[in-house]
Each structure stands twice: as C-alpha cells, then as structure tokens.
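hey so i finally got around to running the thing on that chain from the lab meeting. sorry it took forever, my laptop kept dying and i had to restart like 3 times. anyway pasting the input first so we r on the same page abt which one it is
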Amino acid sequence: MIRGAIRYPYIVLVGALIVLVLGTVSYRDLPADLLPTFKTPAVQIVTFYPGMPPEVMERDITSRLERWTGQSVGIEHQEARSMLGVSIVKDFFREGIAFETAMSQVTSYAVSDMFYLPPGTVPPMVMPFDPTASVPLCLVSVSSPTMTEKELYDVAYFELRNRLQSIPGVIAPAVYGGKLRRILAYVDRNKLEARGLSPMDVVRALNKQSVFVPAGNMKAGETDYQIFANAMPAKVAELNDMPIATHNGSVVFMRDVASVQDSAQIQSNIVRINGRRQVYIPIYRQPGANTIEIVDAIQGQLRQIRERLREMDERAQDLALEVVLDQSVYVRDAIDGLQFAALLGALLAGLVVFLFLRTFRATALVDQSIVVVENIIRHRSLGKSKARAALDGTKEVAPSIVVSTLTFAAVFLPTIFLSGMAKYLFAPLAWAATFVIVASLIVALTVVPSFCARFLEAGEGGAPHESGWQHRYSNAISSAIRGRWAVLTATAIAAVAAGFLLTQTGTELFPRVDAAQLQIYVRMPSGTRIEHTERVLAAVESAVIDELGEPDPEFPTVENDPDSNLRMLITNIGVLMDWPAAYTPNTGPMDAFMLLQLKEGRRDIFEVVETLRETLRRDFPQAEFAFDTGGMLTAALNFGEPAPIHFQVKGSDLEVLETIGGDIARHIAGIEGAEDVRVAQRND
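ok and heres what got predicted. didnt touch it at all, straight out
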C-alpha cells in the first residue's frame, strides 16, 4: 500500500478529494442534537371514553390493552396511566426490535381488542413514543390582545398545527389553552317543565332536524343532478326557531324553552403566558431529526402563516405567533463550543508539531502522521531522495503505528457489551473514535508518504542547533533521572492525595446542567376547581416575579427590563381530557406546571430553586411543589421521568398501593439530599 501510494500520487489525491467532498456533504446533513438518537422502539396507545372515571378506565380499558398489546414479540416492559376518560399505555421493546415491527404488532393487537372494550369507546390511537424526547424542542405561542381564547384556539388548531406538522421531523400533537368552540343550547328547566318537556326532548329535536343527508341523484335531460337534504342552519340564531314539540295544540319552539348560543366547551385547561391567558403548541422532534433545522423551518413557516391569517381575517391584524422556550439555543451553543474546542485543539496540535518538526507543512498532521513525517524527515536528512526517504521512513514505522492503532481501538471494545442507557450514550462515541483512528492510520500510510515524496525538500524540518528551552528541558530530564527515587516518591504521594480527594467527590452519570430553565409542578388538594387553581397559580406567579423580576420576552434581541432575571413565564393548569392528555404531567383540574426561562448568565438556576422552594412552600401551604431543572439533557437521561429516581409499586388493589406509596414517600423524604418527594398520581 505504501509503495503504491508513492507510485500513484494522483490516485491518492483523487481519493482524498472524494473523502473531503463526501465528508462535507455528510457533515451538512448530520442531525444536530445534544445526545445520540435513541433506537430502542417504544409505542403508546391512547384511548378515550369521555366521562368514564379513572378507576373504570383502568379496569375495563387500560388493563385490557396492556394484556393484548403485551403479547407483542420483544416487549420489555409496559407503563400505563388512567385519567378521567383517558387511557395511556406505553409499550417498551427490547433492543434489536425494528420500530416498524413494534408499531405493526401493537396496532394489530390494539385494534383486535376493540371488540372487548366497552361500547362507546373511541378506537385506540397508536403512535410512536421517544422516551428521550419528552421535553419539547420549543413552544409556539399564539397571542392577541383583541382575539378571544376561542378564536386563538381555532387559529392554533385549524391553521397553525396542521401546517407545522408538514415540516419534516416535527411532531405537533396538541394545542394547550384556549376554549373549544361549541354551539350550546342553554335550557330553562322551569319553562321545560311548564310545557311537559325534558332536556332529552331538546336533544332529540336537535338530532332530527340538524342533519345533512345525501338523497341520491336525479337525471333530467342531459344533466345528472346530485340531491342533498340539508337541514343544517346557516346561522346559529336560526336554531332558536327550531320546533321541538306541540303543547296544548301550539308549537313549542327552541326559543320558548332555551337559548342557543355560539359558545365554548367548559374549560378544563388554562394556559397563562406572562400573566395573560393564551394558547401554545408544543413541538417535539421525531427520532433522528435535526433540531436546529426544525426550529429554523418553524420560524420561516410562522412568518408565512401570520401574513396569510392577517390577509384572511381582520381580527388577526395584531395576532402574534412566536417561538418561546427554544431548546435549540442550547444545542447551538453546544455545537459552537464543540467547534471552538476542535479549532483550538487543532491550533495547539499544529503549534506543538511545528515546535518539534520545524515545518509549517506538517502542522496539519496529527496522531500517526506525525510519527511518519518525523521519520521521513530523518531519512531525508541522511541524503536519501524524496521518494526513497518517504518509502523507507514509512515502512520502518508502519508496524508500530498499526499496533498503536489497534491498541487505541481495543480501548473501546468493551462498549459492544453495554446495554440500555450506557450503550445509547457511549456506543456512538466509541464507533466514531474508532473510525477516526482507523482513518488516521490510512492517511498516515498513504497520503503522508505520497505528499512527502513530492514536496519534502532536503533539510526541511531539521533542528541543527539545540535551542535554549530544549537545553533547559534536557537538563530537567537529566536531574529527574538522577533523583528518580524522589520523583517516584512525589508521584506516589500525589496519587494517594488524588485518591483521597476522589472519595470526597460526588458521583453522577452527567454533571448538573444550568440550562437557565426551570419547571415547577404544583398540586392542589383533590377536587379543587380549575378556577380556584388558576387564582392560586396567579398568586404563585406574583411570588416568582417578586423574586426574579417581570418577564422580558424580547430578550436578548431587546432588553426592556435590565433589572429582571426572568425572560418567560408559562403556566399550564388542568388538562383537556383528549389528545393533549398524552403529553402533560397534569392529571386533573388541581394540577398545574410552570415553565420559567431565565436570562442566561444572570443567576444560578440551582440557587433560584432553593430560594423558590422555601418561599413558595411557606406562602402556599395548601399546595404541593416539586422542581425540575434538567431540560433536554436530564429529561433524556431520565427516560422522560420528571425525576432521576422513581419507584414503581405494582399490585391489583389501588388503595393498598396508595398506602404503600405514601409510606415509601415519607421514608424517602427523611433521607438527606432527597427533595420534592411525592406520589405522582392520586387515587382520589
């Protein structure tokens, strides 16, 4: 290989150019994220039965779906959650099971189970689930000072959400906040009773007379007419003129017993952004998608959607669509830091090579190539021709650098035996490092001798005279050799001291990350109305603002409040017992969570947590608080769980399980260092 590289330099050049082009293209298309792609498949099944109590959902729907989908080949474990009218089952598969296989199996079993589910159950929805991507990449907020919550929800659900889902790699599953538009008939019970009617008479009249039925077709002459029986009123007010029944010989109209209005569904989910009721859509990432490209594409789409809405609807002139809590900022910072470190490392390595080899041409070489170039220079200084020096110098050190390469690669061999989170984190790094080392070996044995055989001049890189610092270094080495026992003793003392310090250092898979973000979980007593929960959360927001300052959402583009440490404050109260229930930690109107985004570099997030934990628990004793500072990295390492440590208590008696769970929580709360210990879901 060495002789061929020297003999055919143009082939080596073409090969190097091909690698350079492919590398550039591959780097451009490389997914950018904080962690590697998690390839172990997981599937979640979401099933609805409006109004059904959680305990009945668990017994008649959740448990059945667990049993049926648990027959899938490769199931590792299952997790499930039952709420009012909502069942969520998550199936986790073992490594090696293809994602397509997992989806097809779970879908088949879930659909087959429909026959045994209670009548009226909405067919199960099966969708992929990435446990390492439980934190949204960003939130798209929809706000307007003049539009109602109902109008904001319609914009987010019908216009914005569908357009965002067309972006490659985007999952925009739900809309949070706002009010769902409904046409409601407000019935007067006294007027109904006076006419001998019941609410069901009103329901039957609406069902019978608000219909749209294809009635066939009629052929007349050369024309084929499609006929439709359309009894749907064009305006809401027309429903008030609908006849319901006859009473004492006179017709009873809707307006006689009720008032039909363009209204909204009873609100069970409220979103407040910087103190005002608004709407937002969480954006999640599909496995393997590029985080930065997704956020950039969303930014571009929002501008187009906003302009289109303003052209279509005069009410949308002051509509604002904004990306908030953008997690890609930290991905960009991490990539910028990595690029800076790579550039700095390359400069330092080049400087060291220049100091030792005394040639600028060799400063781009690292690892095995340095050894090859140094030996070629030595042979060139002996008077050999460029080609002969390149051949002899490379052949002489080739066995050594091959062995050193295999030694480096062997260091990463144990990663093939890893599994779970460790494999997910470290296996890609091991493969990348091994590939780089092997590629470096190939460059050292082909590109370097080919380059030196044509361009290395006699005397280049030599060092005929020893410089002052080299002389001092030689003297230091000689002194160390003469006093070897003193050097060994000092080294042993340093090793013992380092070992002692290591025992005093905490251990963690990853160090704590100050992402300048904070999530606060708030829980009121069971049965609390959402209106009261909102009032309490508004007071909690005021306490947070007293500590951190008023929100400054335009930062860092424009800083309107230099004294504030707070950039964004979002509160999500309650849960809409529909599709959004699969993507929220809330379980009812008594639950809420707050998202705080601080200005970077202003205050330590862990100090803020300690301060808020003490303040909020003192000022709001009726509420439970828990804090999470993790962000994307910690959420991925926790597999989507809100805490790094969690216990699962299994059994068939929910009351017994609740008692055991409460006892465990009380005991753990007494352990030093344990904070925010709580039972995730209550049974009452």
